[in-house]
Specification:
α4 runs parallel beside α6, α14 packs across α15 and α18 packs across α19. β3 and β4 form a beta hairpin. The strands form 2 sheets. The protein has a two-stranded antiparallel sheet. A two-stranded antiparallel ribbon has the order 3-4. It has 3 domains: 179 residues, no CATH class; 94 residues, no CATH class; 181 residues. With 501 residues, the chain is mainly alpha-helical. Helix content is 57%, strand content 2%.
Amino acid sequence: MDFVSSRIDMTSICEATNIRRDRIREYQFALEAALLDRARSCPPTYFLLNGPEIVDLYAVEDVQTIADYGLSGLSDQAIRTYLAGLALAYRELGDEDTRRRSLEAAVLLISVRAERGAVKSADWLALLRFVEEIARSPKLAVAPNTAVFPRLAKCGMSWCELSMKIVEYFAAGPEASGMGSAEGLMMWLMAKDSERQAAEGDATRSWSLPPLLLLARRGELDERDLDLIIRRFGLFVLNGEMFYPDAIWLPRFARVVPLSKEWTTALWNCALDTTGKDPRCLALDSGLAARVLAAQGRFLSTAALARLVSRLDDSIKDERDIAAYASEMIDLACWAPMPDRWVSGLERGVAYDVQIAPPRAADPLTGVQIIEVTDVSVAQALSASLKSDHGSTSATIDLLKRYASNHLSYAGLDIVYRALAHKLRQMDDPIGLDLVRSLQDSKSDTQARAVLLRALSIATKLDGLKDARIVEGPRFWRLDAVLAARKQLGDYQFELDHFCE
């Protein structure tokens, strides 16, 4: 409270050298302060020097034979917090060796927690978010024909090879990592997947596909590369007896890379097959084919999108059932105008969820109130429509704000915050979001205000406490900004389903 009210700075935290019981908690507080007011928070060296204790791990050859110095016992939230701090240090540090150490700490932190050679999914997605951030930062300077991380030479040949190579590629570039190109990293990941398939089975997909998806989103893979990924991982099986498009990963790649004619022809034939001529294409397959095509929205013509909208609209016999089709509407809403009855049906679905939401239970990490989330697709579809200006009403914003308030600690609401942020930027929009008025209207709901401030953190690059609308408002708005910053840290993981981008 003293910090957000500008009565104290971070000296007591930043300069403390004694061993403290709540080290991780103080690290998180320092990072929250950095998100709120970078000028008054700790210098970047703090987040490197007070991060995970990994000095003794540099010389370890076999991680199974030594103590892990408490790293495997850290919570998922602690891992996300450490990685967010190390990414901040990497961005802001000037000395190349200290920047390199922040990357080494991240590699060792994730690698030492890999149990029996299998990467933990939550750790891996946090590392990929870290990699996203460092890829947008100035490249790490590496002399020609030298190792990127010489201190990691021993573990780089064994237990931390996977995470080290990926960090090398995105921090220092393809040539420095020894890959040469995105295709080189793709082939290396596939080779590693084959090596570990016998030991890990299908679990290898959880660590090999996310970095490939990141390459695709960065525009480093093309149609031919996606074709190879589809065949290697069985994302689309098409033969005389089987028609099987993967419902999880194929749409994720389809959102960013166009599919070849071989796949799109089969998908269109199945999606629009009303005669039942293709015995492989069942009704369930037809709906799935349409969803994959909708994920290709950025690459489709207006006429093609209209056919998909018409197909889905014809399937909805009763307007009361619109919410049940929400998962099929999300990608369509990003690229095509939504029929009015879809928007009203989705709004009714979100309003119903808000109305029946049980009393909120306290989240042990943040202290905020949450409820169990059973189906978020209705809010996601309505958010996609709002984000893309493809059909929404003045009630949409308020409904999404209340929905996100009720589900503040849920990790699937990224598109909701982006949609609200989009409306924050358009103050001349007839249904644009007036931040100050909305904060005033939520005077009895801290979480609703935190939702708006979380959207503000996306809409602007300014530190949370420097926005004039917040500084000039009531003091408790600055406390709400702390909750928004905490939510921002809680969301620190690679977003697998990135809609409307």
